[in-house]
Amino acid sequence: MQDKEPEQSLVQVENRLNKDGYTQDFNVVDGRLLTIGNDSNKSYAADEVTIVDFYRFEGESNPDDTSILYVIEANDGVKGTISTAYGVYADTETDDYLKQVEDLGKNLDKGHK
């Protein structure tokens, strides 16, 4: 695993990922990953996506204010991100879905750089 640049902001990371083609926003509903904000309304089961990378961000004033941005690629080529709170504030549905993806052996393919 390669070290990430220190002190990156969420906005900086999202801007770089957008330039790399990761432009779709995702959300998890009823155990499926859904596209947000476009007309296609695609959805994906856990075995149809890969977690390409992830970034953890801690709040400056509160260490409990932590989020994780996951970089996702679907089997049909759709690329984007989903973020979730970490720890106490975590969205359990999103966390459960992402754990299913990892458990299916699709852990971190770091080849997107």
How is this structure best described in words?
This is Phosphoribosylpyrophosphate synthetase. The protein has 113 residues and is of the alpha+beta class. The protein has a single domain, classed as PH-domain like (Roll), CATH 2.30.29. It has two helices and six strands, in the order αββββββα. The protein has a six-stranded mixed beta sheet, sandwiched between helices. β5 and β6 (79-85) form a beta hairpin. The longest helix is centred in the last third of the chain and has 12 residues, at 92-103. It is globular. The two termini are 12 Å apart. The mean pLDDT is 83.
Protein traits:
113 residues; alpha+beta; PH-domain like; 6-stranded mixed beta sheet; 2 helices
CATH class: Mainly Beta
CA-based shape: globular
Number of strands: 6
Distance between the termini: 12 Å
Provide the number of structural domains. 1
Low-confidence stretches: none
Average pLDDT value? 83
Helix fraction, binned, reads 10-25%
Strands side by side in the biggest sheet: 3-2-1-6-5-4
Structural category: alpha+beta
CATH architecture descriptor: Roll
N-to-C SSE string, H for helix and E for strand: HEEEEEEH
Hey, roughly how much beta strand do the residues contain? Answer: 25-35%
Q: From the alpha carbons, calculate the radius of gyration and give it in angstroms.
A: 14 Å
Largest sheet: 6 strands, mixed
